[in-house]
Automatic annotation (TrEMBL), chains A, B:
Pathway: Purine metabolism; IMP biosynthesis via de novo pathway; 5-amino-1-(5-phospho-D-ribosyl)imidazole-4-carboxylate from 5-amino-1-(5-phospho-D-ribosyl)imidazole (N5-CAIR route): step 1/2. Its EC number is 6.3.4.18. GO terms for biological process: 'de novo' IMP biosynthetic process. It comes from Orlajensenia flava. Homodimer. This is N5-carboxyaminoimidazole ribonucleotide synthase.
Amino acid sequence: MIVGVIGGGQLARMMIPAAVELGIELHVLAEAEGMSAGLAAVAVGDYRDRDAVLAFADTVDVVTFDHEHVPQEILRELVSRGVAVHPGPDALQYAQDKLLMREKLASLGLPVPDWARASSADELADFLDDHGGRAVVKTARGGYDGKGVRVVRAAHEADDWFTALAEDGNGGDLLVEELVDFSRELAQLVARRPSGEVVAWPLVETVQKEGVCAEVIAPAPHSAGRIADLAADIAFAVAEGVGVTGVLAVELFQTTDGRLLVNELAMRPHNSGHWSIDGSTTSQFEQHLRAVLDLPLGATGCHDDWSVMVNILGGPTSGSLEDRYPAALAAHPLVKVHNYGKSPRPGRKIGHVTAGGTELDDVSYEARAAAALLVE
Amino acid sequence: MIVGVIGGGQLARMMIPAAVELGIELHVLAEAEGMSAGLAAVAVGDYRDRDAVLAFADTVDVVTFDHEHVPQEILRELVSRGVAVHPGPDALQYAQDKLLMREKLASLGLPVPDWARASSADELADFLDDHGGRAVVKTARGGYDGKGVRVVRAAHEADDWFTALAEDGNGGDLLVEELVDFSRELAQLVARRPSGEVVAWPLVETVQKEGVCAEVIAPAPHSAGRIADLAADIAFAVAEGVGVTGVLAVELFQTTDGRLLVNELAMRPHNSGHWSIDGSTTSQFEQHLRAVLDLPLGATGCHDDWSVMVNILGGPTSGSLEDRYPAALAAHPLVKVHNYGKSPRPGRKIGHVTAGGTELDDVSYEARAAAALLVE
């Protein structure tokens, strides 16, 4: 059983432990030497290079991904050549293009923010007029971690993007959305295998800082009952509706009036599920491997009443993460440290920590304090 | 931080996930291509080949082991060249030579079975006379998994071993021990770092079949209080007394009259600690890496009231372990499967499964049933 992963970032890296335990060979097509998942790299190549991807795919039993950026043409050629690709291009297109995603979710009858396709500043102005003079504008493609997302209060504030799209050979429109009045952000992680089985982990709360996930609390506080059921129903409907295989993360807004709206989709293991490595019977990385191999899925219960994951962003102001281990590990023997083997750089995700326990206040403190010792 | 592991078996393999998560580079000196820990192999060489071991040691920050068989001369040369070796030769000698081990434990005042050094059938006959006509004879060196261990009722039954020892250039004696009247076997796992910190996991019960570990129950049933305290005291005394670094497993007999006697020592991650991968906050493999790097040790609490580990011995009668995944994983979504990537062979340890939960009967059933589906 050889699983091929396109992309050598930390998501591919975190598949390695699960693959080793299950006796699955993991082959990574890395963007460069020395990537986070370098241990499992068998080839270096660009995911936009048709020949490199096809040659890599010939050596594996199933192709999956560290990211969602492999072009549709290449994905479809793989499928036409009989390669098992999970998630497949029909599903991945909704993670690659936010306008397609909004249209699909709307057609599935799922709750989303008010949105529109805007091809000009005039159309954006109309949307602003209808939504209290403010909106979120998103590029349909290429955004992540807050990039390609902008809050605007005047139509001219997206002029540079309209110009760029006009100059781009592919053209295209912007997605404009209402600025949702939300009380918090949640994420519902599920996994689906080709033969149809779908499982959900508990709903989690995600805390963003400057558009980047900073902290995840599992399960989301005060979410038992209606909210948890609703989130799972939405995520199952998305998974079935788009036919995703592997792990799917559905990022949600909980509105101040208690509704859930779908914000974004990710069709791969996701930062909101990193807690599951230490906190769940089956980690999202093990589950992703099981799912893409169409193996029965594992249990998704929790080891602890509460798990809190805190990202390590940027890294220490001097030296390496490992230099901080003596202090951080001594002070926090209960905390699990995950180091992606990436060099520190402002804002870069270079690791995370997870704590678990029975009292949320204590667990949050443990995770935050350990993360602070690793970067301060 | 590069940890070098001499030997490429499943113990080295199971260090890989912990190393990946902590961002530690793991370099394995493997006995051959395609070993269980092949993913981390950077060199192939014989652990008895001085030049191969020295060249390997030059590329790493600390040397540790998948097994205890590296010759003392090579270990001592490494130390004399300034290489950090954990556990070091002064400790490892007690895992390499059972006569030295018995002498050391006796000098530390630790409880052991009655024993003697036997250099001839006459001396063995004397011991048999004093112990009801039966004894266990062990070769001092080279035994594992029941090999090099024999129950005898007459002195001539060890003649072949005496002859072999006489012919061996190194000569040597046999260890003879009373046949202990035990109610069960236990194991106490601890870890010690060079700067002195020692931690213990809960005492476990081990179930042997034909001299090979078949099943481990963590914690050992009916062991709270006196027995658990005694076992931890013994293991701490051994760890300090022999100056071990890394993980130490102390195998114990619980006698029918309620005493604990030290049976064997292992100075490396041990089969009795495999449950900790899924069942403890810190697995023995992560702890071993932390210990040999002299990093602060992690917490050793349990995720579940009970964990049961069942070895997969021999493997399926036809096909591979992975062929059995669909049936085994579907029936046991709570069970964690560990596959060492070794080809099936009668009696060979090729993997293990672990289950956890609140009712020991249920947990044992889950683990045993999953293991059965994987080999039947």
